[in-house]
Amino acid sequence: MQRSLEQRMAIKFCVKLEKSAAETIPMLKKAFGVDCLSDRQIFRWQKAFAEGREYVNDENRAGRPSTSSSDANVKRVRDLLNTDRRLSVRLISETLDITKTIVHEIVSESLGMRKNH
């Protein structure tokens, strides 16, 4: 994440110097090597800064937060499992409106439970 912020600042700097994306890309590739943003991302950021964008940080996105396995959700899953330990991940997911992937992560990693055969 830090490397991409550095590169966005460099792109913004190049825009202020009136460099084109075609001129900016080789400079970034030389400076950042294998960690360099893709050409497409460089073009996108170059265009955004040329159109007046000032901030280099990502904008907030709508949707489910990336921390769906929060302490509150861990507690909700634990409380539900305390009522019936045989509940499936699918049923827990549907009941609590949490994705199956997150429920599985909570059950196996946060609660340290595993399936008994």
Would you spell out the secondary-structure blueprint of this structure?
Blueprint: H1 2-16, H2 21-32, H3 39-50, H4 71-83, H5 89-96, H6 100-110
What descriptive keywords fit this protein?
single chain, 61% helix, mainly alpha, 117 residues, Transposase-MT_Hybrid, elongated
How would you explain this protein's 3D organization?
The chain is mostly helical and 117 residues long. Helix content is 61%, strand content 0%. It contains 6 helices and no strands. The chain has helices spanning 2-16, 21-32, 39-50, 71-83, 89-96, 100-110. The radius of gyration is 22 Å and the shape is elongated. The mean pLDDT is 87.
H/E element order: HHHHHH
Rg for CA atoms: 22 Å
The average pLDDT is: 87
Helix content: 55-70%
Shape from CA axes?
A: elongated
The amount of beta strand, in percent, is under 5%
Quote the distance from N terminus to C terminus.
Answer: 42 Å
Please give the largest β-sheet. Answer: none
Structural class: mainly alpha
Provide a compact summary of the structure.
Helices cover 61% and strands 0% of the residues. With 117 residues, it is an all-alpha fold. Helix 1 packs antiparallel against helix 2, helix 1 crosses helix 3 and helix 5 (89-96) packs across helix 6.
